[in-house]
Amino acid sequence: MGVSLEQEKERWARRAVTVPGVVALWLVMLATLPALFAVALVVDLARPRSFAAVRVVGALFVVVTLHVVGLAILLRAWVGGLLRGRAYERRLDGAAELWFAATVWSSAIRIFGMRVEVEGAEVLDRRGPAVVMTRHASLLDVLLPLVTVCAPAELVPHIVAKRELLWDPCVDLVGHRVASAFVHRGGRDRAGDLARVAAVARACGRHDALVLFPEGTRFSDERRAKRLAELAADPAAHERALRLEHVLPPRLGGPLATLEAAPPADVIFCAHTGLERARTLGDLLSGALVGETVRVHLWRVRARDVPTSREERIEWLWRWWEHVDAWITRTGAAPPPSRSAPGEA
Question: Is residue 146 within 8 Å of 102, Cβ to Cβ?
Fold first, then answer.
């Protein structure tokens, strides 16, 4: 979709604030880092939480530093594009996106002392195009599809994300260069958002993956109750949603628009446990993430096995989301009922 002059002005006005803002924040943190660590240490000694406050200060400083480095890398990619063409810039931008996600993720693992186990990585032996549908339960799990799917499979990620993330200058710059879809919360521009998602999906090739979160937001008990209320007018969907314990009912607009626009694409489902207790900064400060084991499971559905009609796709998506929920129960909660994966014996 084209960009209007008004949208272009808005974009650059935002960047005039966010880019120098990140650099200024980094300089302030650099200057005050000893004091920040001292305060965090006092908090941890007064209320022991495995030095959680110290870890959070360290993690925030690393993330802000990586944003400054990321901006420098994106500047280099832009200059490279001017000298060697748009295709070269796009490769550099995709590599920068994966480097940023992998470095933030590996830093979080080290700082919080986490362990990561990935099952089903053998499904990444094929190239794209691919649609990656991921559970959303934490501040950190937005990185999981990039580091567990896109990087190992050497796929450039194109992400469907909320527009608020445009206030992160690295997300803003790389998201527009690599063509991601930034959508409104609450369906304020549903038609436009679906058109943006479809346009990104349509442009994906064998080196690309479109990453989306069918729940539309992070899971919480409050949001689950709200979604159940929204589905009250549809008894069948409401009954199915009641049986989902760990995930929100899928919002169908984005997934259906993606599958319609990118019919040759395989679909990779990504489920995970271990990050549920890190939904807010307060959760991190409580030490909930320290020493946690993160378990990830991947399943791949070949394009030829994805249903073609809208009704069949809705049923297919619901069954897979029920399977994701059952896997979470098996892996991270109570013993589950016996259940096979959709399409599995």
Answer: yes
Whether residue 219 contacts residue 246, with contact meaning beta carbons closer than 8 Å, is answered with: yes
Which residue type does 318 have? Answer: W
SS3 letters for the chain?
Answer: CCCCHHHHHHHHHHHHHHHHHHHHHHHHHHHHHHHHHHHHHHHHHHCCCCCHHHHHHHHHHHHHHHHHHHHHHHHHHHHHHHHHCHHHHHHHHHHHHHHHHHHHHHHHHHHHCCEEEEECHHHHHCCCCEEEEECCCCCCCCCHHHHHHHHHHCCEEEEEEEHHHHHCHHHHHHHHHCCCEEECHHHCCHHHHHHHHHHHHHHCCCCEEEEECCCCCCCCHHHHHHHHHHCCCCHHHHHHHHCCCCCCCCCCHHHHHHHHHCCCCEEEEEEEECCCCCCCHHHHHCCCCCCCEEEEEEEEECHHHCCCCHHHHHHHHHHHHHHHHHHHHHHHCCCCCCCCCCCCC
Contact assessment for residue 160 and residue 210, using Cβ atoms and an 8 Å cutoff: yes
* 84-133 pLDDT per residue, tens: 888 888 888 889 999 999 999 999 999 999 999 999 999 998 887 999 99
- Report residue 272: phi and psi, to 5°: -155, 155
Alpha-carbon distance of 299 to 27, in angstroms, equals: 43
Tokens of residue 35, six digits: 């004091």
How far, CA to CA in Å, does 124 sit from each of 41, 96, 102, 130, 323?
Answer: 43, 21, 17, 10, 20
Q: What is the pLDDT of residues 244-255, one digit of tens each?
A: 999 999 999 999
pLDDT, the chain, mean: 90
